[in-house]
Amino acid sequence: MTIEFQVEGMSCQHCVAAVTNAIREHDETAQVQVDLASGRVAVESAQPADALKAAIDEAGYTVTRVTSGSAR
C-alpha cells in the first residue's frame, strides 16, 4: 500500500536520509520517495501507517497529514 505523509521540519538532504532511514528501520524493503520542497513523503510498505508515522515522529519530524492510497 502507498501511504503519503506531509512532514514538517525537513530542510536538507540529511533530513531526507533521517526520515528514509527511520522508515526503513520498520520496513527494510519499503520504497521511500521524499520531496523535500513540498515536505511530502510517499512510502510503499505493508506496515501500518501508524507505525511509520511513529518512526518519523521518533526521528524528530512532525507529521501533519497522513493519506493512505491503494495497494499496488
UniProtKB/TrEMBL annotation:
Keywords: Metal-binding. PROSITE patterns: HMA_1, HMA_2. It holds the Pfam family HMA. The keyword Metal-binding applies. Residues 1-64 form the HMA domain. It comes from the Bacteria. Transmembrane segments: none annotated. The keyword DNA-binding does not apply. This is HMA domain-containing protein. It comes from Paraburkholderia haematera.
